[in-house]
């Protein structure tokens, strides 16, 4: 997603690194392949976390690969997919509430 403004692009890259801890370099197909899960499994987990579909954009990092690999290992060790989705959704909801709380504290609201 290019704005055409080099300063804006540089700022976006810095924000991505600050928030994500790494440069996003994988699209959905690449991250699912590297993690050893199907694209549909990966998308189901991202939706459970509350993330939108990334389309073909390279928005995923090595940490996303590692997270999907942990989910795959849990599945391989006997956790069924519905339970994994419910647990992932609960984690996403908790993180969303925590982020809301942190923002309201930062803004003094």
Q: How would a crystallographer describe the biggest sheet?
A: none
**What's the total helix number?**
5
Low-pLDDT parts are: none
Helix-strand pattern: HHHHH
Q: Determine the mean pLDDT.
A: 89
What structural class results from the helix and strand content?
mainly alpha
How many E-type strands? Answer: 0
Summarize this entry quickly.
The chain has 109 residues and is mainly α. The protein has helices at residues 6-20, 28-35, 39-49, 62-76, 81-107.
Describe the 3D structure.
- The chain has helices at residues 6-20, 28-35, 39-49, 62-76, 81-107.
- It is mainly alpha-helical and 109 residues long.
- The chain has 5 helices and no strands.
- Helix 2 crosses helix 3, helix 2 crosses helix 4 (62-76) and helix 3 (39-49) packs parallel to helix 5 (81-107).
Keywords:
single chain; 109 residues; mainly alpha; 5 helices; flat
List the helices and strands and how they pair.
Elements: H1 6-20, H2 28-35, H3 39-49, H4 62-76, H5 81-107
């Amino acid at each position: 997603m290019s704005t055409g403004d080099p300063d804006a692009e540089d700022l976006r890259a810095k924000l991505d690194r600050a928030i994500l801890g790494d440069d996003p370099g994988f699209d959905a197909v690449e991250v699912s392949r590297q993690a050893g899960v199907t694209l549909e499994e990966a998308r189901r987990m991202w939706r459970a976390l509350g993330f939108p579909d990334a389309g073909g954009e390279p928005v995923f990092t090595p940490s996303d690969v590692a997270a999907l690999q942990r989910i795959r290992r849990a599945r391989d060790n006997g956790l069924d997919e519905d339970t994994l989705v419910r647990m992932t959704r609960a984690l996403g909801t908790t993180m969303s509430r925590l982020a809301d709380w942190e923002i309201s504290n930062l803004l003094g609201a």
